[in-house]
Amino acid sequence: MESLYNMFVILFFLFIFKTTDVLTFEVDTYDFLMPNVHPHRDELYLCTPIRISPNQNFYIVGFKPNATMHTAHHMLLYGCSEPGSNDPVWSCGEMQSNEVDNLYTTASPCRSGSQIVYAWARDAPSLELPKDVGFLIGQDSPIKYLVLQVHYMTKFPEGKTDNSGVFLKYTQETMPRQAGVILLGTSGVIPPDSVEHMETACIMKEEKVIHPFAFRTHTHGLGKQKVSGYVVRKSMQGDKWELIGSKDPQLPQMFYPVVNTDPIGKFDVLAARCVMNNTRHELVKIGATNRDEMCNFYLMYWVENDTPLKMKYCFSSGPPYYYWGMGPENFNRIPDLDNTV
Ligand SMILES: *[C@@H]1O[C@H](CO)[C@@H](O)[C@H](O)[C@H]1NC(C)=O
Ligand SMILES: *[C@@H]1O[C@H](CO)[C@@H](O)[C@H](O)[C@H]1NC(C)=O
């Protein structure tokens, strides 16, 4: 184990493990796995980085997870300008930064330029991006590092180690459509024994047109009904709410195809809602551990001959401080609360 900590950042793409010819261009695979870590306590978030060769462009075109829900509660792949730490492995629970770990340094996944590239939970299968679409990383991208975060639920027995992670499919062929992800979510609290709606919304301010193609929902145990994402088109006649996608978060938390691929542009509003059923007799807050909750809607999109949105996150303070009806967006025709879409 000790030798692991002395190892420096692993150079990306020095080793090509497998080469397969798909269509007309070459796709290689990079095994991005935890370096045999030992989760020494419950609810541990661990991060490991790879530095991307700074003088080349690569496009990630697929993700093959290598994990099971028995050990990993979730995995997130972050793109960063700078990683949170220079260690080969560090403790990176976003909301437990005040916690001191005796084995690992504590830092966030990224020191700067954080964005989500991929997410996995509940035994979700592989994800292939559509034809001509790829996540640009390296030279011409703000993504100079990738950081893999794994949330381990429980402490491992003595001597047992883990190498959960994801096999990245990538190419050096230029993809005309760059992929991006925006994460919509909330903070907030859910009162005991009640159904609560956690809502967020953000106006599109950039001169860009995004084409949504996949979405993923994430909650913990209380997200019992649906998590839904919408695009709201503002007009003189009133707001038009178009569903982008809606899913029961207790199903495999994979990226599913959107139900509406209509392009989304400047002044449209992205919005998401989680319906939470708190059957516990205590207040539940948004937080990092499995006893807390989360309300997340990930939207994956492509842009044609353009760079992805600068807006990577769209978070609200959540209940009781924010609902769609209270926001600066001045929404009307808000979808019915009893309507579970
Ligand atoms: C991950 O992949 C390695 C081989 O690359 C394998 O030995 C290991 O069992 C896999 N882990 C899981 C959790 O699937
Ligand atoms: C919340 O959960 C309880 C217990 O499972 C159930 O009886 C109730 O119908 C649920 N409420 C909603 C709105 O789903």
UniProtKB/TrEMBL annotation:
Secretion signal, residue range per the UniProt entry: 1-24
Co-factor note (free text): Binds 2 Cu(2+) ions per subunit.
Positions contributing to Cu(2+) binding: 73-74, 151, 218, 220, 294
GO cellular component terms, A-Z: extracellular region; membrane
Copper type II ascorbate-dependent monooxygenase N-terminal domain sequence ranges: 31-153
Entry cofactors: Cu(2+)
Entry similarity comment: Belongs to the copper type II ascorbate-dependent monooxygenase family.
Protein known as: peptidylglycine monooxygenase
Organism: Pieris macdunnoughi
